[in-house]
Backbone:
């Protein structure tokens, strides 16, 4: 497993478009070190390979699906409210393909 | 040198549900930008996905039509990538457990193996300009199904026919309008070529942006020829993504694929697994509309239509539906088919209308056909009545009244009497007919029509006239 370092945490944060203080990065790094140790401990027990990864702590399922009934959409004004640049009712971005 | 071609296809079908895949925003095409969206579609914090039941039913129906195994649990995953058409930063899809797997579709005698069919959500539509990009989120979240074949197709013809058949299936099931030109059905093609004697598969090249059925075969033919030419000249085929350039009828390089993109798939933990009962799946299958292939068989076996007629009727779902409605009312199947294929199609084409805009109802068309089949009016008069019905918005009876058309006389005794009278007064024409002058027959029939004031059945008149002429043959 790739080692988690201050640099890799900062890179990951950067890719997710946020940043933190140095103290927060250090706290997070310590937490990752603890998690990594726990993972390493679990990995020592080879019998875990026989188990499928679980997403939830216990088996859970539903049979509920949403009926195909449309609701009123938000108004265009609301939708575009936070857009910095807009044009012809659309969100205007710097060119995203070359 | 012989070459082996291997083709795999990925088709995205945009469904025509009323609401989106995971939100209740309405689905619509060609609407004002950003008028069909909600906080969920724009990934506002706190919003949660709730899967659309109809989209699941649609996918089950298509999976069944493709002879697939259907998973009894829905599992969704996140496909992570960062791009402006995807506000959440990930697309909800089914990576590990697709709804359908291991199916097939027969294309002629070729069996196209289908690896998977999975549900996912569409992305926003982007319009790219030289210096900026505009984003419309109306499309973001529209239900999509992706159908992926195994790399088992070996010709452009079969690949193109396969895509056409998938379109026919989704169209006739009512799942999608399948218009490639409008992006409702999108096709990506993977193609590789190798020397026939080589045991190693060729390098896979992906071709994107094929936006019409005609272009599939052209793009593939071009790409296959390009790769063969490259192999023969010792050039290395690069693993890349190419796009189809409509103007030059060629594929053009877009980007080199150094590695497959790592989308870091993981389970969508906002959606717990959804169990699909046997009852739910069976109901979805039972309520499926009739497939084009099933209609094709029915039209030929039950109605005695030719393959040619059947294919013309099935080229449009709306025409096929109109035909079905008429066929429930009358057994003159061939006549109904003929009217639809000839007179009605000609009228619609000329007027620039669709059959849904035709003012003549199936009931009225069947009534008109019955009038002709019963010999009340001739085919020619039938066409006049048809034109009058369209122009004046009248029913058959009123159109006949307006045109002054009365029912033809189809009595054998009356017509034979008139024929005998005409023949008795036209000895020269009888002689001409017996000497091979066919025009004489037309003249004699015309005389009968004149004598009757146009009221006798022309087909029956012709038949009786020939009988009487043959009787007078020396």
Residues:
């Amino acid at each position: 497993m790739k080692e988690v370092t201050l640099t890799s945490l900062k890179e990951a944060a950067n890719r997710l478009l946020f940043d933190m203080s140095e103290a927060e990065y250090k706290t997070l790094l310590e937490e990752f070190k603890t998690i990594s140790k726990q993972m390493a401990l679990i990995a020592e027990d080879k019998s875990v390979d026989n188990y499928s990864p679980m997403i939830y702590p216990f088996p859970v399922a539903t049979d509920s699906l949403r009926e195909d009934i449309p609701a009123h959409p938000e108004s265009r004004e609301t939708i575009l409210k936070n857009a910095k640049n807009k044009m012809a009712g659309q969100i205007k971005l710097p060119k995203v393909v070359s | 040198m012989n070459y082996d071609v291997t083709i795999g296809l990925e088709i995205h079908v945009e469904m025509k549900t009323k609401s989106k895949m995971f939100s209740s925003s309405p689905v619509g095409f060609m609407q004002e930008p950003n008028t069909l969206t909600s906080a969920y579609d724009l990934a506002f914090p706190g919003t949660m996905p709730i899967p659309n039941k109809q989209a699941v039913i649609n996918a089950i129906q298509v999976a069944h039509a493709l002879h697939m195994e259907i998973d009894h649990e829905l599992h969704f995953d996140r496909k992570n990538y960062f791009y402006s058409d995807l506000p959440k930063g990930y697309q909800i899809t089914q990576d590990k457990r697709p709804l359908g797997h291991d199916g097939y579709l027969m294309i002629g005698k070729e069996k196209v193996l289908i690896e998977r069919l999975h549900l996912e959500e569409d992305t926003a539509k982007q319009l790219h300009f030289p210096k900026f990009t505009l984003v419309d989120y109306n499309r973001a979240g529209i239900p999509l199904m992706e159908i992926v074949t195994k790399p088992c197709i070996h010709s452009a013809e079969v690949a193109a026919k396969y895509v056409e058949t998938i379109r026919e299936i989704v169209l006739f099931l009512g799942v999608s309008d399948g218009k490639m030109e409008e992006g409702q059905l999108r096709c990506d093609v993977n193609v590789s070529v190798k020397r026939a004697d080589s045991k190693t598969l060729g390098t896979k090249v992906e071709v994107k942006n094929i936006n019409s059925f005609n272009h599939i075969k052209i793009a593939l033919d071009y790409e296959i020829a390009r790769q063969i030419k490259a192999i023969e000249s010792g050039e290395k085929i690069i693993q890349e993504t190419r796009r189809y350039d409509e103007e030059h009828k060629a594929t053009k390089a877009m980007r080199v694929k150094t590695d497959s993109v790592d989308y870091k798939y993981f389970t969508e933990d906002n959606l717990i697994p959804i169990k699909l009962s046997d009852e739910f799946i069976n109901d979805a299958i039972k309520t499926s509309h009739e497939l084009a292939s099933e209609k094709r068989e029915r039209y030929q076996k039950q109605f005695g239509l030719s393959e040619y007629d059947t294919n013309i009727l099935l080229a449009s779902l709306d025409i096929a539906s109109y035909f079905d409605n008429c066929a429930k009312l009358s057994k003159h199947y061939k006549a109904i088919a003929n009217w639809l294929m000839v007179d009605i199609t000609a009228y619609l084409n000329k007027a620039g209308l669709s059959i849904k805009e035709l003012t003549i109802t199936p009931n009225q068309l069947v009534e008109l056909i019955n009038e002709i089949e019963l010999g009340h009016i001739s085919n020619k008069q039938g066409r006049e009545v048809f034109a009058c019905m369209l122009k004046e918005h009248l029913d058959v009876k009123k159109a006949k009244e307006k045109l002054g058309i009365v029912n033809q006389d189809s009595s054998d005794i009356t017509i034979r009497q008139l024929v005998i009278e005409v023949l008795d007064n036209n000895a020269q024409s009888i002689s001409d007919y017996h000497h091979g002058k066919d025009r004489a027959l037309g003249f004699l029939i015309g005389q009968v029509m004149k004598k009757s004031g146009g009221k006798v059945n022309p087909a029956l008149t012709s038949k009786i006239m020939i009988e009487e002429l043959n009787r007078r043959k020396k």
Observations:
- The mean pLDDT of chain A is 91.
- Residues 22-46 of chain A form one domain.
